[in-house]
Amino acid sequence: MEGSSKEEEEDGTFTNISLTDDIDDSSRILYPRPKSLLPEMMNADMDAVDAENQVELEEKTRLINQVLELQHTLEDLSARVDAVKEENLKLKSENQVLGQYIENLMSASSVFQTTDTKSKRK
C-alpha cells in the first residue's frame, strides 16, 4: 500500500486518490467522478434492440409455425392423393371384371344373339 497510489470509493460519487505514502484523511484529494451517459444510452439502445429482436423473434416464430402447418397440410393432401389413386385403380379393376362378366352373359343369352331377320319372317 505504501509507495503506490490507492483508489477507494466512499459514496459512489467520488474517488479518493492518495497523493502521499502515508494515508490520512487530510492528505486525500477528492475528485468528482465524471458521470457517464454511456450506460443510459446503452440501456435505451438495448431496449430498442430488444424490442426489435422481440418483434423479429415473434415474426420468425409465426413464419415457422405457418411453414409447419403448410407441411402438415401438404402431407395430408399427399396421403389423400395416394388414397384416391389406390381407390381409382381398384375401381378400374372392378369395372374390367364387371365388363367381362356382362360380355359373357350377353354372349350366353339368346336375347343378345344376332339373328337373321329374313329367315324368321318366312
Written account of the structure:
The chain is 62% helix and 11% strand. It is mostly helical. It has a domain at 52-79. It is rod-shaped and about 110 Å long. Residues 1-11 have low confidence and may be disordered.
What is the strand and helix layout of this fold?
Blueprint: E1 7-9, E2 14-18, E3 28-32, H1 38-108, H2 117-121
Antiparallel strand pairs: 1-2, 2-3
Number of strands: 3
Radius of gyration: 48 Å
Q: What is the residue-averaged pLDDT?
A: 76
Query: What structural category arises from helix and sheet content?
Result: mainly alpha
Oligomer state of the chains in this structure: single chain
- Topology as H/E string? EEEHH
| 3D shape | rod-shaped
Low-confidence stretches: 1-11
GO cellular component, one term: cytosol
Organism: Lynx pardinus (Iberian lynx)
InterPro entries: SCOC (IPR019357)
Subcellular location: Cytoplasm, Cytosol; Golgi apparatus membrane; Golgi apparatus, trans-Golgi network
